[in-house]
């Protein structure tokens, strides 16, 4: 039960439903994907909005810094957000 409550406080971009707005709090991971996401503007403090998801939920499309970005759910899991 304790695990579920800690999961709610640290939502990831993957957890957000279509149409929701959030603010990036951190980008986790040490791989090139995390670095590339940050180069594309997915940085702490950036506002994001989930636009749509593919029929089976992967990939998702988000708007960040005024442009649309598609990312795999595994990539979206590394982006922690708080709903706005």
How would you characterize the overall build of this protein?
- By secondary structure, this protein is an alpha+beta fold.
- The chain has a single domain, classed as Ferrous iron transport protein A (FeoA) (SH3 type barrels).
- Helices cover 24% and strands 37% of the residues.
- It contains 3 helices and 6 strands.
- The protein has helices spanning 2-9, 32-39, 73-76, and strands at 11-12, 21-27, 47-53, 60-64, 67-71, 79-83.
- The chain has a 6-stranded antiparallel sheet with strand order 1-6-2-3-4-5.
- A hairpin with a 2-residue loop joins strand 4 and strand 5.
- The longest helix is centred in the N-terminal third of the chain and has 8 residues, at 2-9.
- 21% of the residues are buried.
- Residues 1-9 have low confidence and may be disordered.
Under CATH, the homologous superfamily reads Ferrous iron transport protein A (FeoA)
| Count of helix runs | 3
Fraction of residues in H or I helices: 10-25%
The total tally of domains equals 1
Features:
84 residues; alpha+beta; SH3 type barrels; six-stranded antiparallel sheet; 3 helices; 24% helix; globular; disordered N terminus
Summarize, please:
The protein is built from three helices and six strands; from the N terminus they run H-E-E-H-E-E-E-H-E.
Give the topology.
Layout lengths: L1 H8 L1 E2 L8 E7 L4 H8 L7 E7 L6 E5 L2 E5 L1 H4 L2 E5 L1
Antiparallel strand pairs: 1-6, 2-3, 2-6, 3-4, 4-5
């Amino acid at each position: 039960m304790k695990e579920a409550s800690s999961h709610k406080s640290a939502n990831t971009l993957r957890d957000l439903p279509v149409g929701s707005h959030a603010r990036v709090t951190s980008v986790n991971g040490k791989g090139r994907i995390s670095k590339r996401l940050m180069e594309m503007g997915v940085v702490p403090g950036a506002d994001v909005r989930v636009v749509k998801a593919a029929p089976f939920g992967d990939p998702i499309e988000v708007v960040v810094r005024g442009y649309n970005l598609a990312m795999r759910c595994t990539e979206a899991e590394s982006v922690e957000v708080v709903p706005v």
